[in-house]
Amino acid sequence: MLNGKTALVTGSTSGIGLGIARAMAAKGANVALNGFGDPDEIEAIRAGLEADHGVKAVFVHADLSNPDEAFTLIRKVEKDLAPVDILVNNAGIQHTDRIEDFPPEKWDAVIAINLSACFHTTRAALPGMQARNWGRIINIASAHGLVGSPFKAAYIAAKHGLVGLTKVTALENAKTHITANAICPGWVKTPLVVKQIEDRAKAEGLSVEDATRTLLGERQPTERFVTPEQLGELAVFLSSEAADTTTGAAFPMDGAFTTW
Ligand code: NAD
Predict the structure, then answer these.
(1) Which one of 24, 25, 48, 184 has the minimum C-beta count within 10 Å?
(2) What is the ipTM of this complex?
(3) pLDDT digit string (tens) for 222-259?
(4) Per residue, what are the HEC states of 98-152?
C-alpha cells in the first residue's frame, strides 16, 4: 500500500513514533528513524524493520531542539535514503509546572521541539513534495492540542500551535496532492507518560497502579490507554490514497478525552 514511499518519523526510537514507523514499514514504506537512545538498541530497531518487512530503514541523527538540525534532517534523509514523501512530526517532550514556576528555558525547549521543529522540517520537505505533486504531512499533536489542562502551559501552547500549523500547511497546498493532518492522541503508555505517572504517584503518595487509574479515570472515559499500534494504523490511513482529500483536519484518538 505504501510501497515505494519514503517515510520520515521524527522521535521514532520510542513510543508512538516507533509504533508509527513499524506500521508504515508493515505497509511497505521505506523508513527513516530519528530520535535519541542507545545506539545498539536503535540499530536493533532499524535492522528489525528491514528483516521483518523487507523495506529499507535508516537512522538519521538530528537534535530537533536545534532549528538547523531540524531543517537539514530532511536533506540527510534525501541523501541516505530518498526524498521524504511522508513526514511524521512526532518528537516531543513534556514539562509540568504552574506558569509562575515554569522555567523559561523549559518553555523554550518544549516550544522548540514540539512546535518549531515541525515548522523547520515542513519547510524543508515541502518544495520536494510540491515538485513531485504528492506528500503527506502528519503532525502528532495531542488531545492537548484541542483542550487545556493545568500545569502544561508550554506543551499545550505548542500542541495548539501545531494544530494551527497543520491547517495552514493544508490550505497552502490544497490544490496539490499534498495533505497535512494532525493526530491528537489521548493518554498513551509511553516513557513520556510513565514519567508523569511516577511523578504523580510520588507527589500524591499513591502506588503506580493507583496513579495510573486516577490519571485515566479523570480525563479518558474509556479508561484504556490508546496504543502506538492504533496510532500507527491511523497514520497509515492518512498516508494512503483513500485520504487524498482528507486535509487540514485534527483527528482525536483519545478514548473520548476531548468530548467532555
Ligand atoms: P516518548 O518519550 O516515548 O518518545 C519521544 C521521542 O522523541 C523519542 O524517540 C525521543 O528520543 C525523541 N526526542 C525527544 N527529544 C528530541 C530531540 N530534541 N530531537 C530528536 N528527537 C527527540 O514519547 P511519546 O509519548 O511516544 O510521544 C511522542 C509524541 O506523541 C510527542 O509529540 C507527544 O507530545 C505526543 N503525545 C503523546 C501522548 C502520550 O500519552 N504518550 C499523548 C498525546 C500526544
Answers:
(1) 48
(2) 0.99
(3) 999 999 999 999 999 999 999 999 999 999 999 999 99
(4) CHHHCCHHHHHHHHHHHHHHHHHHHHHHHHHHHHHCCEEEEEECCHHHCCCCCCE
Q: 140 CB under 6 A from ligand 1?
A: yes
User: Domain spans of the chain?
Assistant: 6-186+227-254, 189-225
Portion of the chain with pLDDT greater than 70, in percent: 100
**pLDDT for res 53:** 98
Output DSSP code: residue 157: H
Closest atom of ligand 1 to 65 CA is: 18
**Of the residues 93, 121, 166, which should be mutated to test ligand 1's pocket, given the most ligand atoms within 8 Å of the CB?**
93
Measured from the CB, is residue 187 less than 6 Å from ligand 1? yes
CB-ligand 1 contact for 82 (6 Å cutoff): no
Please name which of 67, 202, 93 lies closest in space to residue 152, comparing C-alpha atoms.
93
pLDDT tens digits, 130-148: 999 999 999 999 999 999 9
- Indicate which residue of 71, 107, 155, 225 is catalytic: 155
Q: Which residue has the cell 486535509?
A: 247
The candidate with the shortest Cα–Cα distance to 161, out of 113, 106, 125, 195, is: 113
Continuous H helices in 27-66: 39-53
**Nearest-atom index, ligand 1, CA of 66:** 18
For ligand 1, atom 41, which residue shows the shortest CA distance? 188
**CATH topology for the 6-186+227-254 domain:** Rossmann fold (3.40.50)
Clarify whether 97 is annotated catalytic.
no
The pTM of this model reads 0.98
